[in-house]
Amino acid sequence: MRFPAARIMLLCYGVYLLVPLYWLLSMALRTNADIVGAFTVVPLEPTLANFREIFTNPVWYEAFQNSLAYVAINTLLSLLVAIPAAYVFSRYRFLGDQQLFFWLLTNRMAPPAVFLLPFFQLYSSIGLFDTPVAVALAHCLFTVPLSVWILEGFFSAVPTELDEMAQLDGHRFGYFFLRIFLPINRGAIGVTLFFCFMFSWVELLLARTLTGATAKPIVVVMTRTVSASGLDWGVLAAAGVLTVLPGLVVVWFVRRDLVKGFALGRVS
Amino acid sequence: MSLHKPRNDRAWLGVLPVLLIVAFSAVIPLMTVVNYSVQDILDFNTRYFVGLQWYADTLRDPRFAEAFLRQVAFSFTVLAVEVPLGIMVAKGINRHSRLTPLVLILLAVPLLIPWNVVGTIWQMFARPDIGLLGVAVNALGIDYNYTAEPLHAWLTLVAMDVWHWTSLVALLAFAGLTAIPDAYYRAAELDGADKWQQFRYVELPRLRGVLVIAVLLRLMDSFMIYTEPLVLTGGGPGNTTTFLSQYLATMAVGQFDLGPAAAFSVIYFLIILLFCWLFYSGIRRDQVGTAPSGDDQHVPVEPGAPR
Predict the structure, then answer these.
(1) A28 and A137 together in one domain
(2) A37 in a structural domain
(3) Residues of chain B contacting A263 with CB distance shorter than 8 Å
């Protein structure tokens, strides 16, 4: 107990974190009549009707599938392009490398609102509008720079002696990279996957602009529900609870490397 | 981390895929925006070159100035709360407990919730008729209603942002703290340092790197905030919580004013770049002035620095 005041702070913050989440869950377990009726802290007649509605209504469950589709495409694509780039950034100097690295990061600073119109026109003109691929590509705007940034930090911490040893042992580069280097950096890749997932899953503005009726993601369906009259709070809360779950699954798998990931691989 | 990396221009092949994808998703759209920003576009076949007129108009637009000031006030408020609070929370996490992974996962939860859901959660939580917070505050005798009272809307937004993002600062700070060897603490103890001195002279200097990342990320992201206020307050009451992104989105998609919206976008992007650059170079100068030695393993992440 080095710092009891900080410990108390952590506890208070934990409560602050959990209470709104508790409220979301408790709303999800009530009927709309209960919610707008008498106020109670604990749901008196808990019901799973709201969740049943989501799993049986195609508008809801297809929206979940759409979201998962573009998040998966985005994550795969980001990793595929970021891994080789991060490797060469960590191993070599080359013409313009520093400028390139900084330029990549400036893309992370661009407000997505800036890109609304050009994205809409660009993806419409190449026939990708209203597909998961369009959203996945658009999200690359911030997931790719972030992935390069995180992976470069992790890769730089791997001693170059490893590369040299593999060469001395007569392994070809492809073998070394795929069978030795990448397996060693499992944790780094997991953490990067987590960050790509996180930023693609939570984004609304671009996802809304680039989808119409068929590829509509869950976050958009939820805001449509908000704007419609006769708001169904219970179903909305249930959908909210379900959007939290995929994140929990992903974070569970990377829990060991999470802290390093948050320091972007820089803290050894 | 070797400072003497071999030079190899074939390494460009490795970054080529990244370049292509970022060129597609950033450079082309950005060029489009710059192109629009100097034209008056009546429809796609009738356009006139207007030079810098839209830029001048945007800078003179009082609603832009108001949204900008609100944005600055909001960003600085949330940074002033989240950074110290995040450090405190991180210091409260026991490094060696078996429960630590669970605490970290719990902290990560708000970061994984879609931003509109964050807005929805706080809407349900704070509404004076059905929300736990709203009902509780009103039961204390305070006439709280964030949909009608600008001050309440602001406080609710700040509370929401603190709830949403303090974890990021806390996780970064915790990562920095775990990298400090126990020997440093023992040395500080031998020197008779009290808790505050230990924090000020042992921990804080070694947290500098992660704190720079935390402040930069929070600065950028809070300056781009869109979804959460849109869902929670819709920019109201009146325009009192309309920030830059929302004003821009209304202009671009709502009214379809291509030229002015594009000029707005360019100015907006440059403001963010400027803030980050000012902050970043301020930190660097400060460091050159005071950094005592080269033993600091985790100097601030420096994009493009010798790695």
Answers:
(1) no
(2) yes
(3) 172, 175-176, 179, 209-210, 213, 298
For residue range B26-56, list pLDDT tens digits in order.
888 888 888 888 888 777 677 778 878 888 8
- Count structural domains, chain B: 1
Q: Which residue has the higher pLDDT, B12 or A263?
A: B12
pTM of the model: 0.85
Q: Confirm whether B176 is domain-assigned.
A: yes
Co-location of A13 and A87 in the same domain: no
- Give one DSSP letter per residue of B45-108, joined into a string: TEEEE-TTHHHHHHHH-HHHHHHHHHHHHHHHHHHHHHHHHHHHHHHHS-SS-TTHHHHHHHHH
Percent of chain B predicted with pLDDT > 90: 18
For residue B248, the chain A residues in CB contact (below 8 A) are 111, 113-114
Domain containing residue B121: CATH number? 1.10.3720.10
And the tokens for B79? Answer: 């940074």
Half-sphere exposure of A109 (CA within 13 A, CB side): 21
Strand partners, B39: B49
CA distance A131 to chain B (A): 15
pLDDT more than 90, % of chain A:
20
**Is residue A32 domain-shared with residue A100, that is, in the same domain?**
no
Which tokens in the block code for residue B303?
């994009």
| B68-71, long-range: CB < 8 A, 24+ apart | B68/B244, B68/B271, B70/B240, B70/B241, B70/B242, B70/B243, B71/B223, B71/B243, B71/B244
| pLDDT tens track for A197-229 | 888 998 888 888 888 888 888 888 887 765 444
Q: Do A68 and A140 reside in the same domain of the chain?
A: yes
In a domain, B194, yes or no: yes
Whole-number Å distance between alpha carbons of A247 and A259: 16
Mutation to test the B interface, candidates A205, A262, A264, A268, most B Cβ within 10 Å: A262
pLDDT > 60? residue A76: yes
Number of domains in chain A: 2
Among A201, A203, A192, A197, which residue's Cα sits nearest to residue A82?
A: A192
Any idea which residue has 């379809």 for tokens?
A: B256
Residue B260 lies in a domain: yes
| Residue that finishes a domain, picked among A14, A29, A47 | A47
Is the distance from CB of B150 to CB of B240 less than 8 angstroms? yes
Partner B contacted by A101 (CB < 8 A): yes
Domain that holds residue B269: 61-290
Residue B6 DSSP one-character state: P
Q: Do A140 and B11 touch (CB under 8 A)?
A: no
Q: Cα-atom radius of gyration of chain B, to the nearest Å?
A: 23
Residues A60 and A118 in one domain: yes
- Whether the CB-CB separation of A67 and A218 falls below 8 Å is answered with yes
Which residues fall within 8 angstroms of residue A20, CB to CB, at 6 or more apart? B121, B122, B125, B132, B133, B163
Structural domain span for residue A6: 1-47
A151 and A120 inside one domain: yes
